[in-house]
Amino acid sequence: MNSRPISSQTIAALNEEFQDKSPKEILQRVQDELESVALAFSGAEDVLLVHLATRLPRPPAFLTLDTGRLHLETRQFIVDVEKHYQIAIDALQPDPKEVDKLIKNKGSYSFYKDGHEECCGIRKVAPLRRRLTQFDAWITGQRRDQSPTRNEVAVIEIDRTFSTPDHPLVKVNPLANVSSQEVWETIRLLEIPYNPLHDRGYVSIGCEPCTKSIGPHQHEREGRWWWEEATIKECGLHKGNLDILARD
After folding, report:
1. What does pTM read for this prediction?
2. Most buried of the four, 35, 75, 164, 224, by CB within 10 Å?
């Protein structure tokens, strides 16, 4: 295990190595390389990562974001996953003072008019930022086929949103090279529990006011922040790295 910051050369070598590795192999290799790792579970199809991670000799810490605006089905699903895998998922909550300030100044649904970034910054980015200071790396469920902004996502990279000069944070996307079809084939094959909203046409699942079901042949991210254009459908958790990709 390596408790020191991982070098950019090591990141580049691992990224090359991971291109033909399975998600399980990637998870195991990351645990071999880094001492303190967290897996961020969104309550959606990234439950596949939870399933795989619980089978590691040394599972990571499990995190989720309790924004205060999740569907009831998502909240129950998170509890069900904890029970099914006999794990504790740390639910990170926003600062209530910041939430109250936003609602007082702009109302409960200002994001429909001025964009979702401010609300997501308070409810998602800030709580995760506070928690990730305790880890060397975090694991996400990003896939390249999820949206136009993610089509070049690396399997492993230095996080550009949550790293600081004193704390470089590694970000790992074990599903980057995996398609939605492959994820769901595995979920069905292994009988992995999943969010019941998926059976009601919800493909990409976030907060209730910002998520809707989609119709046949629509892209999965069309149900997220549907009032905004496709190129900005990110909550801010991954924005730093995706902005760099967009500039390159």
Report:
1. 0.89
2. 224
